[in-house]
Amino acid sequence: MNSKKILITLVVVGLCCLTVVNSLKCFSCIDSKTCKKPSKVQCTYDSANSTRNYLDLYYTGVPNTTSIGFLCMSDLLKPAGSGDIMRKGCIFNNYQSCFYNVRPYFSQSYQRSCKQCNTDGCNPADRASGSLLAVTFTVMVTAFGKRVWP
Q: Of 7, 54, 115, 146, which is the most buried if we count CB atoms within 10 A?
């Protein structure tokens, strides 16, 4: 009787884990213009495969494999003398997106910014952000400094 309860518990936990793995939502965009306001999508095989195709176009060593889990990815490639190449989206969790080498065409001079993460919306649109607490503290220290050292 105990073994049946343990088996049922394991099946329920396994199904819950599988649902969590497949329910990741990432921001998605395909170029600098659309990445200013990316949409949030649920990761699917098709969305991850589309990101894999992007990686394969600009980087070497990208595997042609899949998995049942996903990660969010944000990639910005800035080749010298050319416009920015940007992509945000879902990727299979067995990929190391940020470690692939740039194709020789871009390898002369470029800058790259890349991030992989595993929580909903962890690859948001790029924007300047400031902490209200940090700004307030800086103003207070500056005002205090002027009083102490006139």
A: 54
